[in-house]
Specification:
alpha+beta; 5-stranded antiparallel sheet; 19 strands
Length: about 625
Amino acid sequence: MSSRAVSPAPPRYRPQTIWDARHAFFDEGTAPVGLVDDAVLRSWRRCSENGQEVGEPVEFQPVDRTGVARLLQTHRELLDAARPELADLAGSVADAGYAVLLTDRHGHALAVDGAIAQRSAPLRLAFRAGVDLSESAIGTNAMAVAIREAQPIRVLGAEHFYTETQIFHCSAAPVFDPQGEVIGAVDVSRDMPGMVDSTLWLAARCAQRIERRLFRRRQAYVHVEIDAGSGTCTEAAGSGAWLAFGESGELVAANRAARSLMGLPPQALQVNFDSLFVERFGAWVSALRRSAQGAPLRLQDGVRLRAVALDGTAVAPPARVAVAARPATADAARPVFGDARLAREFDRALRALRAGLPLLVTGETGTGKEVTARALHAAGPRATGPFVALNCAAVPGELLAGELFGHVEGAFTGSRRSGAIGKVEAAHGGTLFLDEIGDMPLPLQVALLRVLDGKEVVRLGCNQPRPVDVSVVCATHRHLQQMVAQGVFREDLMYRLCGHTLHLLPLREREDFDAAVDALLQRFGAHAGRVGPALRARLRALPWHGNLRQLAHAVQRALALAEPDAELSIEDFGVDSGPIADAPRSAGLLEAITEQTIAAALQRAGGNVTLAARQLGIGRATLYRRLKRRPD
């Protein structure tokens, strides 16, 4: 925890001392040095200079509903990294009556956890998403001071600037981004005195864990923690100084502690490994790979250090490659479906994957195609290998080939120095997930087909093929058969990708709508009782064209905008409450896709039912029964 100043321990709460300081500052106009923390005193000065009066009423006004939704969307990356850590922190302090809060760098509340329902009305009003908790809005408070001073701080009782907020007792720590800039704060508060000293340490630890998550998500070739001499870099004893380098040794990220350790100015990223250290980057990375104890480093001025892989991963796959961690067991990776049909289809798809068949996952937008693909990978035979995802619709056509196949140095204008590995090659030994495969341009479809058939890839600008062994899972919301008929998707590639098709039902047709709502409520820290039976019935009747993704956003929005612990209403969800208008059913689509797949298999097999059944991964008798059900 040496990356942030948490010690020495703050003094115990001494109300009379604080009141003496207030009297000196507000009544006599003198500086009460030594009676309150200097950071608190500086905050009092800022508030006074801004024309704020201690007796003014304080209103905890959230931004408008649209503003809350926009705020949460803007800080989604921070929220995703923070939620598990906030939940862990809340589990430590909730029984003692503490509430937990995350703010952005401007002091706007983003997420709340812990003992909220049992707290006073002012605290419940303050701890709502969107509320402005900055100094300019509510005066001196721990979150605002921690952000402004870039250090952990306690603000107890009468240390708060305004009279109305003096019931609060708060400990807060700033959250820094991978470049060492403050992006938010973690706060632990309650509305009664007797705050335990450890709350400041807990807030600082939570902030550092969030920072670690954010740092590990920074795309880089290698993430390391610098050991300045203790011999170990654990979460409890480590330096908290983190560095991330690209494939060529360029500095991608350096957090606040690392910059302080090495004397790097803020935002200095035009730095290379070789300019910082005596070692050569390539040889040093090889040494890091070989040793669980890390690899030595020596700064150019001769100072000796040691670096260990951050979170135990020596070298991550190259930039922009997402790798899924293997679950403890295959069963742990299997998603829990409340819909029996989906559970059966998932098991069938898993059997097909284990048999080596390529999978096509179909379904409307927001049905969870990538989540399902990740679950199939984690429960499948390649769970120890990488899961590499590429959204074919998210990358411009002219750049997609480089993303997919990689390139050598100088292959095209703007190509990376020393080249770059492609998604296909990065997925070697694991699973390649191609989302929105229907949006892939025709020329690339030809190249992909050659890769899949030849099991080798050639980087752009190179003639040397590289062998690859990947399991392929594709996904689309489009009808590939129709696209083939329209001439915009290759028929041979469609057959190559459709070894087995898993169709995900839209939300309006699933049998587990209530279970999905309850799971989302739990994810966002709310209890199932906040959505009553009448509201559930109204929600079930909606079309949900955005499916699970739309429902998740709607639940998150409702919880952010509603009063704490109040039962939610349809207005909180911000969705059209009208009836479904001729919503398409999936049964017909699934039947059509099945028929298309069977017809394609029979065509490839020249009418041989036994061979076609083997290609489909089903028994010959099953295929015969299916054919007999066809209309004449």
